[in-house]
Each structure stands twice: as structure tokens, then as C-alpha cells.
Write a structure and sequence with these properties.
This protein has three helices and four strands. By secondary structure, the protein is an alpha+beta fold.
Length: 95
């Protein structure tokens, strides 16, 4: 497991003990991956990039924000970016 995902999972569990966003079943269902290179904290929010894929589509990327209560929202649109490079460009504009 990568360090960023481990940190996010630990922080998510602390903020939202009954949450399911990082549960194994959820991660497997969406074939979710957490990008190791794009992560930052601002105030009490944590920003990161995830990607999802299903059997009917290619892998697409989203920028996420976890708030102080463990609620994870998508910045802009879910699966908006068709490449990690495109997601990283948008992510860097948030920093």
C-alpha cells in the first residue's frame, strides 16, 4: 500500500469512523487507485487525486477533497480527467 493511501485511510478513519470510502469492497468495486504524487493539506482539508475504472470504461481521474469531518467531495466533475497528466495540471492550480 502506498504511503499517501495509508495516510488518507488513517485520517479518514479518524475523521469518519463508520465511513466506507476507503473500504476494500468500495475500492475494488470502483477499481480505485490513489495517486502517490499529488497530495496536500490546507487548513483541515486534504486534497488528493484518485482514479477509477470499470469494465465498461477506461481509467479516469478525479481531484478529491476530504474535509474536517471526513466527507470526501469531488472538485469539479467525477472522472473529469482522461489522463493523470491532465489531472495533475488541474491539481497544481489548487496549490
Amino acid at each position: 500500500m502506498n504511503k499517501i493511501k495509508n495516510k488518507l485511510m488513517k485520517e479518514y478513519k479518524r475523521r469518519k469512523p463508520r465511513g466506507y470510502w476507503f473500504s476494500p469492497d468500495t475500492m475494488i468495486f470502483f477499481d480505485s487507485k490513489i495517486d502517490e504524487n499529488n497530495f496536500f493539506e490546507k487548513d483541515k482539508d486534504i486534497f488528493f487525486i484518485s482514479s477509477e475504472k470499470n469494465k465498461h470504461s477506461s481509467r479516469l481521474w478525479s481531484i478529491r477533497k476530504m474535509d474536517k469531518n471526513g466527507i470526501i467531495d469531488t472538485i469539479n466533475s467525477f472522472r473529469q480527467y482522461s489522463s493523470i497528466d491532465e489531472a495533475e495540471i488541474a491539481f497544481k492550480k489548487l496549490i
